[in-house]
Amino acid sequence: MIEMKTPAEIERMHVTGRFVAEVLSEVGRIADVGVNLMDLEHHVRGMIKRRGAESCYWDYSPSFGEGPFRNVICLSVNDAVLHGLPHDYVLRDGDVLTADFAVMIDGWAADSARTVIVGTPAEEDQRIVRATEEALEAAIEAARPGNRLGDISAAIGAVAEDYGYPVNTEFGGHGIGRTMHEDLHVSNKGRPGRGLKLRPGLTLALEPWFARTTDRISYDEDGWTIRSADGSRTAHSEHTVAITEDGPLVLTRRESEEPPVSRK
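and the corresponding structure tokens:
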């Protein structure tokens, strides 16, 4: 069932979203050459505890994955892009790190992801990160009352096509609110003018992710970590967005975040 949120409920999600943004800003700040992924995991655990939030990941046991998930943040490196399990790995110069984070505060969830490059960035890595950021902004712009769900998917797919990146449609965006995953799958590729008509009160997690040279994925033995099937590098950007009468409202926007500048 799709639940439409009231303006007051959206504001409560916005409270959660601001904390999610704060955590991802902190992860981006401290992720550096020589930092262990488990140090990031434990740092985030401390932030959650101090805020009185509840992790959406801890004990998460969906149909995919080999649960329960026993971490509070997904950390995926290089060819890993989704559901990366934090483990004993020390970040190296040039690593591409995706951090995906979702919590609940007072019964309302928010979900966001960002990809950062540790140390010296390679041009091709910067390019794919920028592509996901541009695709996310295009998706947000399409999330307006009167548009269709397919308009969001088509906007993401168009950016991927423009950059020359293939698109996997197995994992994408989703509804969000009282739980991390609510009804509605938002594909990262689709046809404009198709699907559910967008109305004020709809809240979605939009999350374009691309691999450089494949749309196929593989799973690690841990049952969670998803990688590009050919080992090519990846990137992932995500925001929780509310559709309002005045247009899209990004609930997880980071204070220092600036709109991406296209340099294809």
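(Above: one complete record from the training split.) The longest helix spans residues 7-30.
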